[in-house]
Amino acid sequence: MGAVTIRRHQARGSWVGAIAAVLAIAAVLAFAGIPAAAQADSQASSNWSGYVAHRSGLRFRRVTGEWTQPSPNCAGGSLPSYSSTWVGLGGYSFSSLAVEQVGTELDCTIAKRSSSSAWYEILPAPAKKIRLRVSSGDEMSASVTVTGGLVSLRLTDRTAKKTFSKSFRTTAIDVTSADWIVEAPTVCDGYGDCQTLPLANFGTVHMTHARAQTAAGRWGSIASPLWQATRITLLPDPFGYTPDEMVGTSTPSPLGPAGEAFDVSYAQTQASSLPGVCTARLAAPSGAVSPGGPRRR
Q: How far, in Å, CA of 90 to CA of 97, rounded?
């Protein structure tokens, strides 16, 4: 893509060190006074923010969560921007080729207008729109269940009293993590090259009733001692480009007392303050927008 770079890339080591220092300080401040069972380690991602439950050798059967479809601020930015909120299984490992997920999307158009929609995605198949009209302020609940090769998805708009459900069989399954995520969607070209899109200013997403069940049938909140919890902060691609000097980030709060509720909040920061991020003139993205997908570095 054509680009006029106004900030030079820095070495990978300097970026990793800077982010590690920021996350270490944030973790100390955020989790001070939080019970040990509710603590989580911290990581950064260029497309995910929220919490993930995982443990080596552990397999999950079901994940549930509830949230309110947020109201965006679409006043800023020179290009369309995008966000999605979902629950799912799999996709946490950088080597993962599968993820089972269902959720909602909230975007800002180039005309500064917002749009909401619902979707599901079972990689490697592309995301599919759900015929479920969603509006800002609607109370949503979702679940993903995997039993053998059978995937069952359920998304309910409790405000509109409408439900989508679908079950089907697939051979590509990842049940090594349970995920509660606010994501910056991606767009991919015909060659499989994918670009993380500008994050829409979604304000705050409040996730509740975040629970998971293991393949052995044991239930727990995000903070359950049955698994490890990882808190993920969304920061722009450290070696990518952004169309604006101000870029969107997304940060989850500490877990609530029961370990099954948290907020994810949008914020803006200067691209030049993030090591390695380059501000450039970019064309509007082309191709199908994917609101979900596996975690990216």
A: 9
pLDDT tens series, the chain, 297 aa:
333 222 323 333 333 344 444 444 344 334 433 444 445 699 999 999 999 999 999 999 999 999 999 998 998 766 788 999 999 999 999 999 899 999 999 999 888 899 999 999 998 888 999 999 999 999 999 999 999 889 999 999 999 999 999 999 998 899 999 999 999 998 877 666 778 888 999 999 999 999 999 999 999 999 999 999 999 999 876 555 555 566 789 999 999 999 999 999 999 876 655 555 545 444 555 567 888 888 988
Give all domains of the chain, ordered by start, each with its CATH number.
Answer: 12-290 (2.60.120.700)
This prediction has a pTM of 0.83
In terms of Cα–Cα distance, which of 271, 269, 268, 231 is closest to 253?
231
Three-state helix/strand/coil letters over 215-247: CCCCEEECCCCCCEEEEEEECCCCCCEECCCEE
Residue 197 half-sphere exposure toward CB, CA atoms < 13 A: 31
Tokens of 174: 């990842």
Amino acid at 257: P
Do strands 228-234 and 41-45 pair parallel, antiparallel, or not at all (unpaired)? parallel
**What is the amino acid identity at position 7?**
R
Q: Are 246 and 270 in contact (CB under 8 A)?
A: yes
Cα distances from 99 to residues 51, 127, 142, 260, 283, in angstroms, run 15, 11, 15, 21, 29
Q: How many CA atoms lie within 13 A of 248 on its CB side?
A: 32
